[in-house]
Amino acid sequence: MDNDQYIKNMQALFASEFAFYLKAANFHWNVEGSDFYEYHLIFERIYTEVYESIDTFAEELRSLKSYAPASLGLLNTLSTVVGQDQVPPPIAMAQELLLDSDNIAELFRQGFDLAEQMGDHGFSNFLADRQDAHKKHSWMLRSTLK
């Protein structure tokens, strides 16, 4: 893989992570119903954890002599996470975040493999940590849905 393609893959992964953060925050802000507090808290825990990784991720992209995608249009174009314009019921919110989190965990696994192929071991460590974080988010969401 050439460096340009590697960077494009990492930018798409960044955009997907940012879109996931925004979706989790959206669900946190707008959830309602009899289980409001439970869902409100889990969505907050997830979006807070993901948000804390965004700056480091952007800086990793900058270390590749690349720019971090930062416009809503570019983030939307690059992301594999589809935004949610509606306010679904809490269970549907959790199910949607679970699917997205599982998919992003897989994207981070693939990103790790690419970083290793490129000999970018520091970045691959970051990507492995992000994969683990999403696996934990998925576990928590899956357990909440039982």
Word description of this protein:
This protein is mainly alpha-helical. The protein has a single domain, classed as Ferritin, CATH 1.20.1260. Helices cover 79% and strands 0% of the residues. The chain has 5 helices and no strands. The radius of gyration is 15 Å and the shape is elongated. The N and C termini lie far apart (42 Å). The model has no long low-confidence stretch (mean pLDDT 97).
Topology, element by element:
Blueprint (H helix, E strand, L loop, with lengths): L2 H28 L5 H28 L8 H7 L11 H28 L3 H24 L2
Mean pLDDT, to the nearest integer, reads 97
Count of separate structural domains = 1
Which geometry do the CA atoms define?
elongated
Strand-pairing-aware structural class? mainly alpha
Helix content: over 70%
SSE topology string = HHHHH
What value does the Rg take, in angstroms?
15 Å
CATH topology: Ferritin
Strand proportion, as a percent range, falls in under 5%
Top CATH class? Mainly Alpha
Could you give the distance between the termini? Answer: 42 Å
Poorly predicted tracts of residues: none
Quick one: how many beta strands?
A: 0
Name given to the CATH architecture: Up-down Bundle
Largest sheet: none
CATH level-four homologous superfamily name: Ferritin, core subunit, four-helix bundle
Total number of helices: 5
